[in-house]
From TrEMBL:
Transmembrane segments: none annotated. InterPro entries: DEAD/DEAH_box_helicase_dom, DNA_helicase_ATP-dep_RecQ, DNA_helicase_ATP-dep_RecQ_bac, Helicase_ATP-bd, Helicase_C-like, HRDC-like_sf, HRDC_dom, HRDC_dom_sf. This is DNA helicase RecQ. Pfam families: DEAD, Helicase_C, HRDC, RecQ_Zn_bind, RQC. GO terms for cellular component: bacterial nucleoid; cytoplasm; replisome. Keywords: ATP-binding, DNA damage, DNA recombination, DNA repair, DNA-binding, Helicase, Hydrolase, Isomerase, Metal-binding, Nucleotide-binding, Zinc. The gene is recQ. Belongs to the helicase family. RecQ subfamily. It catalyses: Couples ATP hydrolysis with the unwinding of duplex DNA by translocating in the 3'-5' direction. PROSITE patterns: HELICASE_ATP_BIND_1 (PS51192), HELICASE_CTER (PS51194), HRDC (PS50967).
Amino acid sequence: MLDQAQRILKDVFGYDAFRGDQSAIVEQVAEGGDALVLMPTGGGKSLCYQVPALLRDGLAVIVSPLIALMDDQVATLDELGVAAVALNSTLDASAQRDIAFRIRRGEIKMLYLAPERLVQPRMLDFLRDLNIALFAIDEAHCVSQWGHDFRPEYLQLGQLAELFPSVPRVALTATADRRTREEIVQRLQLSNAKRFLSSFDRPNIFYRILPKDQPRKQLLAFLGQRKGDAGIVYCLSRRKVEEVAAFLSEQGFPALPYHAGLSNELRAHNQRRFLNEEGLIMVATIAFGMGIDKPNVRFVAHMDLPKSLEAYYQETGRAGRDGLPADAWMVYGLQDVIFLKQMLANSEGDDRHKRVEQHKLDAMLALCEETRCRRQALLAYFDEDMPQPCGHCDNCIDGVQSWDATEPARQALSTIYRSGQRYGVGHLVDILLGRDNEKIRAAGHQHLAVFGIGKAMNEADWRTLFRQLVARGLADVDLEGFGGLRLTDSCRPLLRGEVTLALRRDLKPQAAKASASAASQLVRGEERELWEALRTLRRKLAEEHSVPPYVIFPDATLLEMLRSQPRDLSEMAQVSGVGARKLERYGQAFLEVLQGGGNAERASAPTEANDLRHELVSLARAGMTPMQISTQLQCSERNVYALLAEAIAAQQLTLDQALDLPEELLEEIQEAFLDGEGELPPVAAIAELFQGRVPEAALHCVRAALQAEFEV
Ligand code: ADP
Ligand code: ZN
């Protein structure tokens, strides 16, 4: 049996070996047993039912809650040469009849269905006349009434056990917690199912959490090392989604907004673009997520704090499904904490419910202020023990300094107390630093004993300290009021001198920035060109076949081609992810890019670029603006600026020909560059000054002009 499974894995899917529990699950289901599979996102759940489906006689029926996912799976199987269809409401009656006909004739191997479809009496009758290979119930946690993905129709899937007693059933989910697991077993009648619980670790994800300090600038610095990567940026509010998306686009990072306030059409359109195009950034509220199966999401960035570790794990989990390096990046600050606490206080539900939610938020905050390995802490929350620090998170890589904050913490807490427990952080810091301003005088706070006792620390350090006091539950936010801080009971021992307090020291932004994660090293400099050529071919084929690029080949497969450089079709067949059908369809085309054709293409690339630049110079000289040129040449604006900068450096263009900036502004930019001594600073160093006024890419042109001037 396993031999055969192995052969199918290689021939159809192109993979050499099963991962983790896959082979045991395949064996269990192929031999007719039931299975409950808990595996993290990207763990490879699909193969757990697709391989047994091919090993067994008859039709495999797969229940999935989302049409987009089904279509994606069917397209993928289609590319592999497996006969699969999805029955959904978008099909008209005659198309449905046709599918039914083909199923009866045994021409279809896998049928994807929404749960409400499956449980219709007519559908069940139809299936009972057939030979069914297995039932796979994907996203099985949808049966849980406690989860946020609850689907009432899932409750009816329990009847499959009685209606089809001899057909194996496999339920799959990426939701880890115990209660959900038991609910699945009970409601889907899987008490005899063998359970397969994988580790929920996502080893390829690098976790980083930073204190929020000019978040957009921090985001740009993060993205700067990930140009051309697809990713998701989560924000809490719709407005912020819009703003950040616009800001990123302006800065030369192609970004699309996604939130519940957009029309259905626009949402669907943006989602489709995100799936089908490469290197797009989706800026989204959490409305975006479920059903995003794009395997090569290279990063998930949080501009705001999620409200629980469950949410954080799920959202960050959308990165790196393909197993290649990916980043989970987040900035958080005191405002986030205040905001989430306020939401919680104003939410509906009884006290017990609120206490549970409060608990979850506390766990999230604890991860932010964590001094040990983030991954260990995250997994511990899900009851998984990881004996060693992971070596692949910010805390492991950068190290964490903690410091004895006992005395300053006491000062901060007494300042809260003595000023009446109703002032926000700004005012409290003013008291500590002894700032003599109107608000202080109006309240008479210059007379407090704590006035000016905190001068040994600066404002930023005090703010950090207050954030940490709130995160640790030593101080609380007055939610009815205006974000004033209050003491909590748990701070008494500290105030009485019975305990000490160690806190994590915030890293200086520069230090934090310096350590790029592995993701940016996915493709090394000298490989870039060939990598791009492979991607271009993939994009072209994807368009021809009307499927997303990753359905042709996942990134991991392209990367392996790049590294192993197969010379002929038989070597190509060795590449992981190249099955028989894909070898036949695409093998030759990719070989050509890798070898002869590739060389030609690589050789021609610079000429193409030269041609483009030549044309661009003419257009610029003719007085076109960068925007107009970008439309004319169908080239991104960012690219246009980059080419303009090159042309300026080569003295083919003057700055005035290239840009049309107001005189004053231009002078201001030039001064900013010339401000220091010695070398011209890099664009990034001054970009912030002109944020929102000049596209960052345009600054490169000014810099190039200055440089050209100096070199003469
Ligand atoms: P899940 O549904 O658990 O999130 P998928 O089934 O979509 O995960 O698999 C994630 C990725 O891993 C896919 O690109 C899949 O082709 C790949 N994959 C799964 N199993 C293997 C394997 N045994 N060898 C290589 N790649 C695999
Ligand atoms: Zn770690």
